[in-house]
Amino acid sequence: MSYFRVISIATNLLLTLLGLVIAHFAVFGVAGVFCRKRYPKTDKINKFGLIIPARNEENVVAGLIESIQKNNYPQDKLQIFVIAHNCTDKTAEIARKYGVTVYEYNNPEENTMGYAFKYLFSCIERDYGTQNYDGFFLFNADNLLDINYISKMNDAYNYYDGESVITSYRNSKNFGSNIISGLYGIYFLAGCRLESCGRTVLGCSTRVQGTGYLINSKIVKNGWPYVSLTEDWEFTADQILYDNKIRYCDDAIFYDEQPTNIKIMWRQRVRWARGHLLVFYARFADLFRQLFKKETKHHMSLYDITAYILPSPVLMFGLQLIQIALFLTAPLIDKSLTMHRVLFGFTPDLILSDGLIITYARSALTSYVGMVLMAIVIFITERKRIRGVSFIQKAAIIVCWPLFFAAGIPMYIQAFFSKGLGWKPIPHSDQTSFEHVNKKEQ
Fold it and tell me: CA 365, CA 27: separation in Å to the nearest integer?
């Protein structure tokens, strides 16, 4: 057996095994495109606390508060809590003008959103008692709510008897601002349609993405422990470890503001990548062991999050780099070969008859086309919910979508070596109003 064949079989076997581990993601994607989970209207009106962490968000915090107060849900069953976290502006002052409960917390050493949640829940427990609420919504200050958001989430919450975490449809306030914001918009819609929707339809737990989700107050009876760079990943992993499911409500729509420049996009996504890696280091072993325990109730959900928490794109990229490096050593092993023949073809081994450059160019083109088709599917399925995006912008977003995805590889590499990576706020200034995002309902 030739050197080429040995290397190809070994590395391709590993790539195939990794692909099989995550192959079920495609099933969720197909289910999400063609099916949706609807929840019947409920007569039970729950009492909710609404959590808004805000760090220098004087430009947008009023918009979220107004969208809550104008929501189609009994206001006497809602209490809004704002935590002004390490603020140096008028966030707290503006929030108090709306009659909401505001706490201020300043500790530069505790600067992630998780610390804001931790401090705020301790204040709520002290002053009101967390168990006096049926559940809590967790938002970000730049969010805006659809007029029926809370009622739709209440329907889903009651459908599962309050035992499941409910996450929601994440749309963008500034989808059409430029290509960067549009790429973010597609990213989150893909998460909703191809991930969360399909998982819920097929009875599997999904995951929370950032904010826009509802939890039972029992979850925070002992406080909020998730304070890493990506507290949503930590929270998701633990809920599934504890056999709690996370469900998705497609009819509950909220909007948030996306970055519009490459520098902020890169910084944010590197932070996400670092947080993902930290959760992988901290939770993977526990998740994997739990798969083999008899008392585990939701094996598919547990397997899914265990596979999802793997940094699969990085692992696949690393294996391919190893394969290429080993192929390039072929002339040292087989003196009949030259580097030109290895790179451009005409080798005696059928596996590399096209050469490395043509082989990997073909693979890259196939991946690119697949990602383009994914973006087209999202634009088609979500066409009624995507606003303010011209045909030219859509075309540009579709063309750039594979590059947005591929950029994750160098971001993960940077995150791997950025041991002291900290959290920095993302500036928000979009002034989209509640009336604008709800104009079809008015």
Answer: 23
What's the pTM value of the predicted model, to 2 decimals?
Answer: 0.91
d(CA 323, CA 343): 13
pLDDT value at 352 more than 60 = no
Question: What type of residue sits at position 305?
Answer: I
CATH number of the domain residue 188 falls in: 3.90.550.10
> In this structure, what token pair is assigned to residue 149?
């958001």
Domain-embedded: residue 330: no
Cβ(299)–Cβ(291) under 8 Å?
Answer: yes
Distance (Å, whole) CA 235 – CA 230: 9
Residue 166, domain member (yes or no): yes
Residue type present at position 187: Y
Structural domain of residue 99, as residue ranges? 24-308
Q: Is residue 193 part of a domain?
A: yes
Dump pLDDT digits (tens) for 121-132: 999 999 999 999
Which pLDDT score, from 0 to 100, does residue 358 have? 82
**3-state SS class at 254:** strand
pLDDT cut 90: percent of the chain above it: 74
**The total number of structural domains that make up the chain:** 1
pLDDT band, very low/low/confident/very high, at 287 (cuts 50, 70, 90): very high
pLDDT score of 326 more than 60: yes
Six-digit token string for 277: 């890696």
Collect all residues with Cβ–Cβ distance below 8 Å to 273 and sequence separation of at least 6: 408, 411, 412, 414, 415
